[in-house]
Amino acid sequence: MQKVMKPLREVGIVGYGAYIPRYRIKTETIARVWRGEQAGNQLPVKQKSVPGLDEDTITMSIEAGKNALQRAQIEPQKIRAVWIGSESHPYAVKPSGTVVAQALGIAPSNTAGDFEFACKAGTEAMQAAIGYVGSGMADYALATGMDTAQGRPGDALEYTAAAGGAAYIFGPAAEAVAVLKGAYSYVTDTPDFFRRNYQHYPEHGNRFTGEPAYFHHIRNAAQTLMDELNLKAADFRFAVFHQPNQKFPQKVAQDLGFKKEQYQDGLLSPEIGNTYAGSSILGLTAVLDKARAGDLILVVSFGSGAGSDAFCFEVTEKIEQRRQAAPLTGDYIKRARFIDYNQYARFRNKIKK
Amino acid sequence: MDIPRYWRLRHQRYHLEGARCQNCGQQFFPPRAVCPICKKRKIQPIKFKGKGRVYSYSVLYQPSERFEGQAPYVVAIIELEEGVKLSAQLTDVDLDEVQIGLPVEMAVRKIYEEGESGPIVYGYKFRPLQF
To answer: Residue B122's pLDDT band (boundaries 50, 70, 90)?
Structure first.
């Protein structure tokens, strides 16, 4: 059985856009509240991004979508699908995609819907967009991964649960800044992290989230895709993995044979935390900001529940002219306004009134 | 804001859709059915670019019920590049950063939530030019 997934029609990324809110909190600041004198011990990231009071997955998807449209340089109405992957959709029932499609000037001749698969909801939307364009049903489709992740106060997740994400417009390969060489998805029933209906905060399986969940799925997805495409780690200029902290993605990269210079440019979690459905694909925007024609990029997501999507892209010469059409991911990372725990508690609705 | 009104105004709220009088060229926001200058009804919709400057502003410390939890915040009169003025909340800004003449750009943000179970109202705000 051929495992690699590739559409009949060649497809690529014609536009991409990042968005990260401007607020940051240092994990030391969080640790001082909950760990006292042990505040400096083994913090998973340096700092994380925090959404403003008036930001949510819909507003941030609009921001990233605008950036992707500026780079794609196409009429918004040519986009025939608006799919938003997130675990923090503002409504339980009412699609985020309709608001985003309307605000970006894409509506009404499009499909719109929301994807949910923990941290891989964004790449799930990307797989669907690739299939939609690749089948010829549409010339362009917009796939977004965006989250305003929540962590229970004092829980391990509070140190990393961040906000941000990225939007990708897929279209014909001839117009692309990066052409899809192949994709592969690997999914099993693994209950490492979940949130039940009507619950505000998710639950997680502590150490169980590591080997049987994150590492098993990413390793399988990445290795299978590389084997199917007859590629080895050294063939790639960049590799990007889901980033729940700064340790896991570095370990899985090394296990798969990648060197620091291949994964460091896409590793954003030390600066912004884990942006969940936005995590690996935000790393991909940072890499596209630096890539040159001919570079191969491997990007592998991980979503609890659990599964991984792996993609191989080859960058084209169109990247040089398009990347400057919108703010770079590094610009968003640099515009950091630090807040204290009191402001953070207010912004994240953690104060009972 | 009631649901029909929110729905009716979505083009204004999401992408600053205003109007231009085809007779005298006057532009306005929000759009009007009759030109206030020449009184003609030859009105055409246009989208403003969403860039401008703070013309004047005020800091709100005592907001109405719907905006509770947001105070203190800034409401400004924005003069768009096209010359039209409108009022809007400022966002992504510290109070001491705000000054007359500050270059700003439009962003779609959450304006307020209609209680715990009602609709979430999105619309334009302005923020200092980012990059």
So the answer is: very high
Residue B46 contacts A where some CB pair is shorter than 8 Å: no
Q: Can you give the pLDDT at residue A40?
A: 67
Q: How far apart are CA B107 and CA A326, in angstroms?
A: 15
State which fold the A181-321 domain adopts: Peroxisomal Thiolase; Chain A, domain 1 (3.40.47)
CATH of B49-107+120-131, one of 3.30.365.10, 2.40.10.220, 2.40.50.840, 3.30.1360.140: 2.40.50.840
Exposed/middle/buried for A231, CB within 10 Å: 0-12, 13-18, 19+? middle
The arithmetic mean of pLDDT across residues A195-199, rounded, is 91
Catalytic site positions of A? 87, 119, 242
- Contact call for A62 and B108, based on CB within 8 A: yes
Q: What is the mean pLDDT of residues A178-187?
A: 98
> Nearest-CA distance from A266 to chain B in Å?
21
Spell out which residues of chain A touch residue B92, defining contact as CB-CB under 8 Å: 22, 52
- Residue in A63, A102, A335 closest to B14 by CB: A102
Closest CA to A246 of A264, A232, A261, A258: A264
- The span from the CA of A143 to the CA of A239, in Å, is 20
B119: which DSSP letter? P
Q: Which of B70, B92, B94, B113 to mutate to test the interface with A (most CBs of A within 10 A)?
A: B92
pLDDT digits (tens, 9 = 90+) for A76-130: 999 999 999 999 999 999 999 999 999 999 999 999 999 999 999 999 999 999 9
Give pLDDT, residue B1.
Answer: 63
- Best residue in B6, B14, B108, B131 to probe A by mutation, most A CBs within 10 Å? B108
